[in-house]
Amino acid sequence: MSNIAKVLSRRQDREEGVGTNEKAIPFKKQDYQSLKQECLAKGTLFCDPTFPAESDSLGYDALGPQSSKTKGVQWKRPKELCSNPEFIVDGAKRTDICQGALGDCWLLASIASLTLDNQFLERVVPHGQSFKENYAGIFHFQFWQFGEWVDVVIDDRLPTKNGKLLFVHSAERSEFWSALLEKAFAKVNGSYESLKGGRPIEGFEDFTGGIAESYMLNKAPPHLFKLMQKALMLGSLMGCCISKSSSQVTESEKHLKLVKGHAYSITGAEEVHSYGHPVQLVRMRNPWGRVEWTGPWSDNSEEWNSIQPEERAKLFYSAEDGEFWMAYSDFIQKFSMLEICNLTPDALSSNTVSHWNYSQFEGDWRVGSTAGGCNVNEDTFCSNPQFVIKLEEEDDDPHDGEVSCTILVGLMQKDCRKGKRFGRYLNTIGFTIYKVPDEFRGRNNIHLGPDVLLHQQSIAEIFDDLREVSERFKLPPGEYVIIPSTFEPNCKGSFVLRVFTEKEAAASLLDTEISADVKKQYISESDVDPHFRKLFNQIAGNDSEVSVFELQKVLDSVISKRTDVKTDGFGIGTCRHIISLLDRDGSGKLGLVEFHILWIKIQNYMEVFKTHDRDNSGTMSSHEMRDAVKEAGFQLNNDVLQVIISRYANQQFAIDFDSFVDCLIRLEMYFKVFKVFNKKNTGKIDLEIMQWLCLALN
């Protein structure tokens, strides 16, 4: 119950802007200003209890407590490493990020690109932090984490060996902002070791909240260089890498000094004239701060003598700082992948700068209810969450001449790195896009079933075992349903779905409106069959009423005789719920008419249950609950269905008959209670604490 309350409360906060960069959520509920003032008042330096200066914060395997790599590590504050430490020296620069003994070049490539635009850097690295004024050993950074911005507090104790920083450091030895930022990011992800291995695209998104695109360079589109130039002009972050399996670079470290399996940041894209002919150049940086490309257009190569002095003066700079130029033609031959993160985000394919239209949704794949897998799983696929996008306005001046709408879809699974410590791996995730049939256009209050979706060809399907799966599409105007899912069914996870469109487009969750339409039973004593009356008298005894204990006994007796349904017996709680619903005179028992109404309900419930027990197992699959409760008169959305499944399904995600009865009885009771308090028909009710407790405990 407490977890459900947290989820619902969090949604309320989101509606009020909590989780934006301006209203970042304190990570682990640590408020930077309060903690800092507390330390200043006490005259102490901050020590973070949630990410202590201990081996556990370093890692769990290669950097675990027993690893040789962590022996001799000492945690020291910058003032213990140099006499005059500074947070940032002469502004944050690409050369401030030099890789240490941690395989997080992907992260450092992202940080290096971040320094190209102060506007975005300041969103991650808040102003007013230093080792001089009001120093208390506490710093903070802000990251975008799976749909929300979080403010991460750290102390400034950093891992060192032999008096030097173990991990990222600045070329300027007295500067510490990059080392502290890396520590804050390690804290968010559970440890330093959890940062090993990755793609720059991940860091780009976590530093900006933007959405990223990937391009395989062996299939580079003809306009890619122009797209890169425009992306840099707009402040977008870019990275590239050479896959370890690539056969394109055979010389690697030995000759051309390009490193396989290593992430580089892209910091420039310019066109120059070599002997009067245009040449496209790309500038890159190795986060190591050294080891540069030695081929054409590298530092001090003869190609620089072929261009005009003014062009040379503008671009050429020779230093062993890890940054270098190379021809675009060599770039797409030597490198495997380019990644671009759209920051603002802007339409990169348009000739004019315009903002994307943006929608974001969060959801869960819950085993037994909303984890339906891909569309190969016909029985469960449609139980996945569904989202509708309405594309009505075509792109301006499409380059291919086709009337279409650009849409960029990104699906991200949450908390990937934290799970490494516990041996959890990425789910294979993706999404399927369908055209909404004409008869369902314009509606949001529905949930499309297999009779609608699986009887047509999908527009697109994309799946991969990545943190985020994203793709750009050009679709004709119309309405489309996007179904995010894991590839296999019954894979638990949480996700963020983001939809970007070049023109304004309405996107929303596609789900059933909650409602109830239960037929009322109007019965008088004269309507009761004599045979039933006789049966009732035998059950009720001398007081002519059925108590909760008598009700439990008779229900168990009747159902136990049936071989076509399974039950482990009606619990006393279920019987109490039945009496709470049907007891009209407040006696706490059921009279003749009330018991007769119950008997009719049980018969109706049995018919519904049998209809949806498609394999005649005596139980009903949890994925069939949506249709079953609908037939019983209740329309429920995914949130409510998830709660129902978690409460009533067994370990095999099957629901037996007594659980089904309890569910329907309670639903009818809660709808009735809500209707009583919803006097103004607003869809909302206000309860005092006494009213709430009486209802909740009933």
Verbal overview:
The protein is built from 20 helices and 25 strands. The protein has 698 residues and is of the alpha+beta class. It has four domains: 24-206, no CATH class; 211-342, Cysteine proteinases (Cathepsin B, Chain A, Alpha-Beta Complex), CATH 3.90.70.10; 357-416 and 425-511, Jelly Rolls, CATH 2.60.120.380; 525-697, Recoverin, domain 1. It has a six-stranded antiparallel sheet. It has a five-stranded antiparallel sheet with strand order 17-16-19-14-21, with no helix packed on it. Strands 13-20-15-18 form a four-stranded antiparallel sheet, with no helix packed on it. α14 (548-560) crosses α15 (572-582) and α16 (592-612) packs across α17. The chain starts with a helix and ends with a helix.
User: Strand content of the residues, in percent?
Assistant: 15-25%
End-to-end Cα distance, whole Å, is 16 Å
Q: In which range does the helix fraction lie?
A: 25-40%
Radius of gyration: 31 Å
Number of domains: 4
Give the total of beta strands. 25
Q: Main β-sheet: number of strands, strand sense, barrel status?
A: 6 strands, antiparallel
Briefly say what this structure is.
This protein is α+β, with helices and mostly antiparallel strands.
Topology:
Layout: H1 2-15, E1 25-26, H2 32-42, H3 55-58, E2 74-76, H4 78-81, H5 105-114, H6 118-124, E3 138-145, E4 148-155, E5 158-161, E6 164-165, H7 177-188, H8 200-208, E7 211-216, H9 224-233, E8 237-241, E9 263-274, E10 277-285, H10 309-315, E11 323-327, H11 328-334, E12 337-342, E13 357-365, E14 386-391, E15 405-413, E16 429-435, H12 450-453, E17 460-464, E18 468-475, E19 478-486, E20 493-501, E21 506-510, E22 515-516, H13 530-540, H14 548-560, H15 572-582, H16 592-612, E23 620-621, H17 625-631, E24 634-635, H18 638-648, E25 654-655, H19 657-677, H20 689-697
Helix pairs in contact: 5-8, 14-15, 15-19, 16-17, 16-19
